[in-house]
Amino acid sequence: MSRMRLVVTFALGAILSAAPAAATIDPGTATTFWDAVGYPTIEPDFDDDQQTGIADSDIVGEAAHPAFYIQFDDAGTADPTDGWIAFRVRLGADTPPAGFSHFFGVGVDADLDGDLDIFLGVDNSGAADDVAIWDGGSGLNVSPNTTTLSNSPLSSDPVDSTPVTGNYDWSQVTAALDPTASDFDLDDDGNTDYFLSFVIPFADVVAAVGGGFDDATQVAYVIGTSNQSNALNNDLGGPDDSNLDGDLTWTQLGALTNPAAPIPEPGAALLWAVAVAGLARLRRS
Largest Cα–Cα distance of the chain, in whole Å? Predict the structure, then answer.
């Protein structure tokens, strides 16, 4: 067995032996535990293009500093419908009052037909702050101007910011939180960017989609912010919202992410972590 294979074998053994059989996702972990979600275009978002001019609803990102991440935990079982799924978006600032006080939604195209089937997100726009799932409203959901959300969520949980065990995190982007970053103010507005992260039980997503959906299903996403949980009309991930034709489809706008299964392939960050863990094990032996 070559030295590299020994490194990988030892590292995987260390990771698996330390990992619990079933564990929820910590939304406050560093980006090395997350997988960036790619777009068909190189630029994942344009700076300062939010409709309202409010910096903490401006999605920001570039090739070296992704705007959108996903993390999945299969609960350590063979069941393709359990576990947890988490999403992270990079926003331009934390403007007064402190904290995220808008709506961030992840529209899910669960059958890759171009329309959004359900919406997952954080609604901090009203009296109660919730992490929830919404069905699509009466609109066709194929473009910004045709997208609506149901008035009441299919399922919801109160926002819980408890470190490690909570379902929500709102944190300033730092070198500790984003170790590969070289820029912490992507829109150059003098305000450090923030990560908004949330976790949802995957079984709730499966129930909302139905029709044989599971953790191997290829899906695409549209992400966006708004001031209320009835549309995605403030800033979209991908297109330039300062010059947006809301009648164009998600595909025409470049707002649909590349298709992927909820369980992402291991990214470079994970492979790097495996190698480092393996080297550390070898040095101690």
Answer: 63
Closest CA to 81 of 218, 206, 174, 244: 206
Distance separating alpha carbons of residues 255 and 264, to the nearest angstrom: 19
Q: Is the peptide bond before 80 cis (omega within 30 degrees of 0)?
A: no
> Which stretches in the chain have pLDDT values below 70?
1-23, 42-54, 241-242, 264-285
Number of C-beta neighbours around residue 280 at 10 A:
14
pLDDT confidence of residue 282: 38
Strands annotated E in the chain: 35-36, 68-73, 84-91, 103-109, 118-123, 130-135, 155-158, 168-172, 194-201, 220-226, 235-236
- pLDDT, one tens digit per residue, over 97-146 is 899 999 999 999 999 999 999 999 999 998 789 999 999 989 999 999 99
- For 127, residues 6+ apart whose C-beta sits below 8 A from its C-beta are none
Tens of pLDDT along 66-95?
A: 999 999 999 989 999 999 999 999 999 998
3-state secondary structure of 55: helix
Taking Cα atoms as reference points, which of 170, 180, 189 lies closest to residue 92?
A: 189
Q: What 8-state DSSP symbol labels residue 185? A: -
Give residue 241's pLDDT: 58
- pTM for this prediction: 0.83
Query: What is the residue-wise DSSP string for 57-90?
Result: G-B--BTTB-SEEEEEE-TTSS-TT-SEEEEEEE
